[in-house]
Design brief:
Helix content of chain A: over 70%
Largest sheet of chain A: 2 strands, antiparallel
Strand content of chain C: under 5%
Number of strands of chain C: 2
Strand order of the largest sheet of chain A: 1-2
Structural class of chain A: mainly alpha
Order of helices and strands of chain A: HHHHEEHHHHHHHH
Mean pLDDT of chain A: 85
Radius of gyration of chain A: 18 Å
Helix content of chain C: over 70%
Strand content of chain A: under 5%
Chains: A mainly alpha, B alpha/beta, C mainly alpha
Strand order of the largest sheet of chain C: 1-2
Low-confidence stretches of chain C: none
Oligomer: heterotrimer
Order of helices and strands of chain C: HHHHHHEHHHHEHHHHHH
Number of domains of chain A: 1
Chain lengths: 292, 245, 319
């Protein structure tokens, strides 16, 4: 029965990976920007939740919108006033730009918040739902459900609302979108804002499930990256598939081979996908790259 | 002697059939023009010969041997050189150095820098670019860039030269220049296959013409034969005009 | 052809050779570290600048080289200099093996794959405790001699390494191989139809860069006398190396070296005055370089300095 528990754990973890992947893949698919600072932004969200909990004792689930909104705003400003400046440059330059940003943010957090591991532990942290032999901690369940709900909302937003459709249109053909009256720099900023908001949100959820410190930013970005590759760029459903797969693979291999090879396994999975089907499980030739 | 032979060549991308059952051959020393409305599959055919993409049906033989499974650089070493529709010179290398790449890595496979330099300089003379040999190719006007493409291919010492719309975008004088250069190449013994849209020019210099339309070969013959062929007229101008004949 | 520039370079080298006898231990250390990064940047430039494959995680070879020297010296009692060829060899073999799958990826995929490789190798090294000491690290035999002598030894060791890297980079750019690499950088398809065996040459370029970076790692290990996975497989070094190549220009032989000198010296000044925000400044510096100087200092200011030139990149690439 332990296999079942592992699967459940993997699934729950996968939900989290989905959320952190959705923001990343959206930005990548629409603006062709690989945001290496994604993990760092997620951690900013984690710290926001931590401080709100620490100083105002507000339940972390309730303060979620705060981290989402503040990172949303942060992302918007970042894109509109920094990244839009060089968006037309070689994709690779943007990569380094975001890396520079990551270094800045990680060091910023280390300087002002210290490198100590922190976590958010409300009173109900220990209790779990018990179904036969399977133990599901309530917090993890809550996190999972929020991830799923937000992902669905995101998908709905992109498909059904005008703004969402504008985002999709821009990703498919920026010139045509411009001629239809869509302002691409606003769309890019909006997309990036969503990406950051979702990152912040996932960071907040992370703070509930494990200890965090600025140094784990890279690992988070790597996971987001892998989920995007696995699922196909810009595809929300793809991120969901990719996230669950990564979660399960990671949990399984941790059990079989041990904790310490987690990154290696995750990375290996990604390389495998890149070699076999670079456009991801659900991806077609991804939107933004067709332009080149 | 047959240099290149295409037999039932087919290429499809998933469900999209780009080339179907294309069969024709090119004899040594000929200039063969490939024409056809846009989307006919001409550049795809060229990509198949230079192996930038792979054939999904049929076979292409060069000097009697199939080349379907070779890598692009092996094709080059066998003596096939090509130019590209959108010229992309190697920026960062001078015009001369660009051509030297061809001398080094083409069929000649030279290893000595000075030999490569000599071959490159000769190639530049043929196309009339010796005066800009030390310049950065990115600043050259279109016509000169096209000449550079030809010189690069020439330096490889090819037996077969594939020209992909080398005349596009050229003015009258430049066109005349390039036409005479192509004939010069033929006189040197190089077989040429040229994809073109500039009708008068390609009809003027080709020994034979192959017409592709929607991936199929619809006509093959001398320029004067092709021009009168109703299927060809229909492909370009529509059936209204074809019936006139 | 190279006369004036070459003369300046020799003069510069001459000064560097004389310096250790007049400056303090602190500056010796700073310069030694500068040479290290300059060598890493110059070597990595062969795959990054010349061939156009952004091997962001090239530091993987640095770490491997460090451990090769470390393990050979501690477990097999090999002499320091004897380990150097093994460092180079480790780089060549690793790059050749990894090149086959990884060099098929383009642009940023390749870059991230190389970072993943670096992280994975770090994790593996961390876990091979019996061989590498794992997380506890490896302590190398300490060199015999006076501190004065030791400082100078490593100064010259790194300097020689740098000169070696420059030499290799220079030779590659001038021979037949150099032409192929530059063609590959611009247009890989066009290069292959001209007869260039692109997979082979890309791998060769990567292997050469890996060999140089590996040797740097080996020297580093002996210099510090202690290494552990987190001090040699450092992502920040990768970024620094990149910023150096960008700053100095990736198409020339000495560009990366100049970028290294500038960046290291700025780094050093900031470090000593504002230790706490060193990392943040590095991040900001990189952002600055991307925004304003992506073609490198020298390319941007070719005709002379002006603020307008700084902004030209923004104008070109603004949305």
């Amino acid at each position: 029965m332990i296999i079942l528990q592992i699967l459940v754990n993997g699934f729950l973890l996968g939900g989290f990976y989905t959320l952190i992947g959705v923001g990343f893949t959206l930005v990548w698919g629409v603006t062709n920007i690989i945001n290496l600072a994604h993990g760092a932004i997620a951690l900013l969200g984690a710290y926001i939740t931590y401080f709100i909990f620490q100083y105002w004792h507000i339940d972390p689930f309730i303060s979620l919108p705060v981290s989402f909104l503040s990172m949303f705003l942060f992302g918007y400003i970042l894109q509109r006033y920094l990244m839009n400046l060089v968006v037309k440059a070689q994709i690779f330059m943007l990569l380094i730009l975001t890396f520079g940003l990551e270094i800045f943010l990680v060091n910023f957090m280390t300087t002002f918040f210290s490198a100590d591991f922190k976590s958010v532990t409300p009173d109900y942290a220990g209790s779990s739902l018990v179904l036969g032999d399977i133990v599901i901690p309530y917090i993890r369940l809550g996190v999972f459900m929020i991830c799923v709900v937000v992902t669905l909302i995101m998908g709905f937003f992109l498909d059904r609302t005008w703004t969402g459709k504008a985002i999709k249109a821009t990703s498919l053909d920026i010139e045509a979108a411009m001629m239809s009256g869509i302002n691409p720099s606003k769309i890019y900023a909006l997309t990036f804002a969503f990406g950051s908001g979702l990152a912040g949100l996932s960071g907040s959820l992370l703070s509930l499930t494990q200890a965090f410190s600025p140094n784990i930013a890279g690992g988070l970005t790597l996971r987001a990256f892998i989920v995007s590759i696995l699922g196909g760029l810009g595809r929300i459903e793809g991120a969901f598939l990719g996230g669950i797969i990564l979660g399960i693979v990671e949990t399984m291999s941790s059990y079989v081979i041990g904790e310490s090879y987690k990154n290696a396994i995750a990375f290996g999975l990604m390389v495998l996908m890149l070699i076999i089907k670079p456009s991801g499980l659900l991806g077609r030739k991804y939107y933004a790259e067709v332009k080149h | 002697m047959v240099l290149l032979e295409a037999k039932n060549v087919a290429k499809s991308y998933g469900g999209l059939k780009v080339l179907t059952d294309v069969t024709f051959s090119v004899n040594q020393g000929e200039i063969v023009g490939i024409i056809g409305p846009n989307g006919a599959g001409k550049t795809t055919f060229m990509n198949l010969v230079s192996r930038l993409t792979s054939i999904t049906g049929g076979v292409i033989n060069y000097k009697g041997q199939p080349i379907n499974n070779k890598k692009p650089h092996e094709i080059a070493k066998l003596g096939i050189a090509r130019t590209f529709q959108v010229v992309k010179p190697f920026g960062g290398l001078s015009v001369l150095e660009n051509v030297m790449v061809g001398a080094f890595y083409g069929k000649r496979n030279l290893n000595s820098k000075s030999e490569a330099k000599d071959v490159a300089e000769d190639a530049l003379k043929v196309v009339g670019l010796e005066d800009v040999k030390d310049k950065d190719p990115r600043i050259l006007p279109l016509a000169k860039r096209k000449k550079l493409e030809v010189a690069r291919a020439l330096a490889m010492g090819p037996d077969l030269l594939l020209l992909d719309e080398v005349m596009a975008g050229l003015g009258a004088k430049e066109l005349a220049d390039i036409m005479s250069e192509i004939i010069k190449l033929k006189e040197k013994g190089i077989t040429i296959i040229a994809i073109e849209h500039v009708m008068k020019a390609i009809m003027g210099i080709s020994d034979r013409i192959v017409v592709l339309h929607l991936g199929k070969l619809i006509c093959e013959g001398t320029p004067s034969e092709v021009v009168k062929n109703p299927a060809v007229i229909e492909a370009y101008l529509g059936s209204k005009y074809a019936k006139k004949e | 052809m190279l006369n004036r520039k070459f003369f300046f370079f020799l003069a510069f080298l001459f000064i560097l050779v004389l310096l250790p006898f007049v400056i303090s231990g602190y500056w010796l250390r700073v310069l030694t570290q500068t040479f290290l990064f300059a060598a890493i940047a110059t070597g990595s430039n062969i795959i990054i600048g010349y061939t156009g494959y952004p091997a962001f995680g090239n530091i993987a070879f640095f770490g491997v080289g460090a451990y090769v020297t470390g393990v050979l010296m501690t477990k097999y009692q090999m002499g320091f200099l004897a380990t150097m060829p093994f460092c180079a060899l480790s780089g060549i073999i690793l790059a050749a093996l990894l090149g086959i799958p990884i060099l098929r990826l383009k642009g940023h995929y390749f870059a991230i794959a190389t970072v993943g490789i670096m992280e994975t190798i770090r994790e593996l090294v961390d876990n091979m405790t019996e061989l590498t000491g794992g997380g506890l690290g490896l302590t190398l035999p300490i060199m015999q001699g006076e501190p004065e002598f030791i400082y100078k030894y490593f100064y010259f060791a790194m300097l020689i390494c740098l000169v070696f890297a420059l030499l290799v980079s220079f030779i590659v750019s001038k021979i037949k191989l150099g032409y192929a690499l530059k063609a590959i950088r611009v247009d890989e398809d066009a290069a292959s139809v001209m007869g260039i065996n692109t997979p082979l040459y890309k791998t060769a370029a990567w292997a050469v860069s890996a060999a140089i970076v590996g040797v740097c790692g080996g020297i580093y290990a002996y210099w510090l006398s202690y290494i552990d996975p987190h001090t040699v497989f450092v992502g920040t070094y990768s970024v620094k190396m990149f910023a150096m190549i960008l700053l100095g220009g990736g198409t020339t032989v000495i560009g990366p070296m100049l970028g290294a000198f500038i960046l290291e010296l700025i780094s050093e000044v900031v470090w000593s005055k504002f230790i706490a925000i060193h990392g943040m400044v590095l991040g900001l510096l990189i952002i600055f370089i991307i925004l304003f100087l992506p073609k490198g200092l020298f390319e941007t200011f070719k005709g002379g300095f002006s603020f307008k030139k700084l902004l030209s990149n923004l104008r070109e690439n603004k949305l």
